[in-house]
Design goal:
- The chain is an alpha+beta fold and 486 residues long.
- 48% of the residues lie in helices and 16% in strands.
- The chain has 15 helices and 14 strands.
- Helix 1 crosses helix 4, helix 4 runs antiparallel to helix 5 and helix 14 crosses helix 15.
Length: 486
Amino acid sequence: MQATYRAMIGPENDKAYRYLVVMGRLFGQLERRLGAPTQRVGRDAYVLGRGWAELKHEYIYKYGITARQFNSVYNSVAGKVSSVKENMKYRAQDLAGRIESLEQVIKKKEKARQKAVERLGKLKQGTKAWEITVEKLARIKFVLHQKKRRLRNLLQRLDNLTGDIAGERYRICFGSRKLFKAQYNLEANRFRDHSEWLERWRRARSSSIFVLGSKDESFGNQTCTYGSDNTLRIRVAERFTKEFGTYTEIPEVVFAYGQEQLDLARQPVRRKDAKGRSKKVYKSISYRFVCREGRWYVHATVERKDPDPVTSGWNGAVGLDLNYGFLAVGEVDRHGNPLGEFKIPVPMRDRTTEQIEAALGDALKEAVSFAVQRGKPVAIESLDFSRKKQSLGEQGAGYARMLSVLVYAKYQQMAASAAARAAVELIRRNPFATSVAGQLKFMVRYGLSSHGAAACVIARRGLDFRLERTVASSVLKLPERKRTTR
């Protein structure tokens, strides 16, 4: 599993800061030059029609960079283009789903309108029932009009997106669309004038430098070397060697998190090639230098070596069930019998995505620690709520709010990372009917909550127990109703 770790470059490294500033400008310029042809119809041949080697040769001599630096720029742009392509496919599927959901709602509203019209024809004008039906018909017509307007807009957006996909137009905004649009409302975005925005815009487009690593190079990267003395040595582009020399060094670069992983990556291993010759092989380390608020940071991406799982299904399993506002944890023994449950709060209401992810990360860490103490693997549901989220606009406000804040995709990634770090086996299972099975079979019998029962069912699935059969009476018991006499 790949992991990225960050360290700050101290401002006392004046030479390194000056080089990163000028290299950031050049890197941003080259990114835009390589990326621009992919955004225009008929100009794809500028890149795709020419040989990659020819393009590389031109950029090396025209802009005074090394071959590895060109590879870094090219891979950075290729990564952004690939990301945009995948995002366009997802958006097309999402729009198609939202259109389908909206069309179903419009059909229902049209039937309701027809029924109201027929009912209105049978009522006497001026009566109370007639007035109520008139008001209801007016509301239906208004909602129907707005739904049809929205449908027309979605169809137009899907048509435009389909045209971009067919024409291979990948619209990349270097510097972010949010900042670009801020120039049209300077005061609301806290800019004094357009010149202040322009300065910020130029900094944003020159604030990132990517350095591609390779396992065939010393210390996993030829252009940026992280030595055993924690000194980061950067190869200077040819056009800047007169001012900065061949290399610029940044001493005492220490990563607060992940230092041990980078230490392992710096140690070579001996392997034999196809001809039987022994050679040193390193782990590939890619670096990205990022400038935020005048300070430069280095992000190192390396293949993380996680310990082998120490948990066993012979001890049972721990199931996790993510809900709105909390994470339900259920424990079962090796026979699948529920042993208990507890909840870990995950505040979601009126919080940003970053705050929700931070709270979710803490909750997962606590749940995984519990699994380590018990020596049991963790089981989660393999969920995909993209289909349900396509109909958010047609659902009630409460249900839509709940679905919109549940970060299931991120949840699964974070659960996998937390489990891998703690040497806990993570098991993904089909979420079919976990809540229903838990309520019908385990909730009343074991005195569990509905969510705790669902978590226990997930844990049972992790141990490969079959789909639970319902009990003889599959009617949920109602809570006791206290009657009073008057």
